[in-house]
Write a structure and sequence with these properties.
alpha+beta; 434 Repressor (Amino-terminal Domain); 2 domains; six-stranded antiparallel β-sheet; three-stranded antiparallel β-sheet; 11 strands; 44% helix; Lambda_DNA-bd_dom_sf; Cro/C1-type_HTH; HTH cro/C1-type domain-containing protein; DNA binding
Length: 227
C-alpha cells in the first residue's frame, strides 16, 4: 500500500493504518536513552583508578563518573581519549547495536516528525510548536492518570525534588551497598534515581520518529551508504 502525502504535518496528519505506515518506511518511535558501555569492567581489568583515568584524559571527575555509571553519553573526543588510555578499541568500549543506526524522519521540508500519543497524528516541528502554543498537553502522568502541560510538569517535578531528594539521600547513607561513597556522589546518585522515577512517571506526548537504516562499508573504506 502506498501513502501519498501533501505535507499536512503543520496541522497534524492522521494515518488510518499507522502500523503499516511505520513498517513500510522502517519508522519507529525514538525513546531517548544512554548507551550501554563496558567501561567499568575494563577499568577493573586494567587496574587503573578512576582518579588516574580522570587526570590522564582531562575529563572532569563528575563527568567521567557519569559516563562510567551510564548516566550520560561521552562526546566523540572523550570516548577516543578513554579508549586510547585503556588501549582498547573504542567501538568495543562503546559498542553500537543494530537499533543505534537511525536518523530522524523528516517531511519534505526537512522538518523532524513527531507522533502524538493522544490524537494519534503525526506533526512536524512547526506543527508541534503550534499545538503546544495553543495549550495542548506535552506529558502524560502515569501516577495521576492524566495529561499535563509543560508548566504543570515543571511544577510537579520541582515539588518532587524539594520533597523527596533529601529523603532518598538519607536512605542511601544508611544502605551498606553505598558505604564509603562520598556525600557529593551520594547526592548525585539520589538525584539520578529520582530523575529516573520521574522519567518513568511522565511520558512525553510528542515522540520523535526515527528511520532505521543499514550501513555498509566500501571495499576500500570510507563512507557508508544508506539502503
Amino acid at each position: 500500500m502506498k501513502f501519498i502525502l501533501d505535507n499536512p504535518y503543520d496541522e497534524g496528519l492522521w494515518i488510518e493504518n499507522i502500523e503499516e505506515f511505520f513498517k513500510e518506511r522502517d519508522y519507529f518511535l525514538v525513546e531517548s536513552k544512554v548507551k550501554e558501555n563496558n567501561l567499568q569492567l575494563l577499568i577493573n581489568q586494567v587496574g587503573i583508578s578512576v582518579s588516574d583515568l580522570q587526570k590522564i584524559t582531562g575529563i572532569s571527575k563528575q563527568n567521567l563518573n557519569e559516563i562510567i555509571y551510564g548516566e550520560s553519553n561521552p562526546s566523540i573526543d572523550k570516548a577516543l581519549k578513554i579508549a586510547y588510555v585503556l588501549n582498547y578499541p573504542v567501538e568495543q568500549l562503546f559498542p553500537l547495536k543494530p537499533e543505534d543506526w537511525y536518523h530522524y524522519a523528516t517531511d519534505e521540508e526537512g522538518k523532524t516528525l513527531y507522533f502524538n500519543i493522544i490524537d494519534g497524528k503525526i506533526y512536524n516541528t512547526t506543527g508541534k510548536k503550534l499545538a503546544i502554543k495553543n495549550g495542548k498537553y506535552e506529558y502524560y502522568d502515569n501516577v495521576e492518570k492524566r495529561y499535563v502541560t509543560k508548566k504543570e510538569y515543571k511544577q510537579i517535578v520541582s515539588n518532587l525534588q524539594k520533597s523527596e531528594l533529601q529523603t532518598r539521600y538519607d536512605g542511601l547513607k544508611q544502605d551498606e551497598k553505598y558505604k564509603g561513597i562520598s556525600a557529593n556522589r551520594l547526592r548525585r546518585i539520589a538525584k539520578i534515581q529520582l530523575q529516573s522515577d520521574i522519567d518513568k512517571r511522565f511520558k512525553k506526548v510528542y515522540i520523535p520518529i526515527g528511520k532505521r537504516f543499514t550501513p555498509y562499508y566500501f571495499p576500500k573504506g570510507g563512507d557508508y551508504e544508506v539502503e
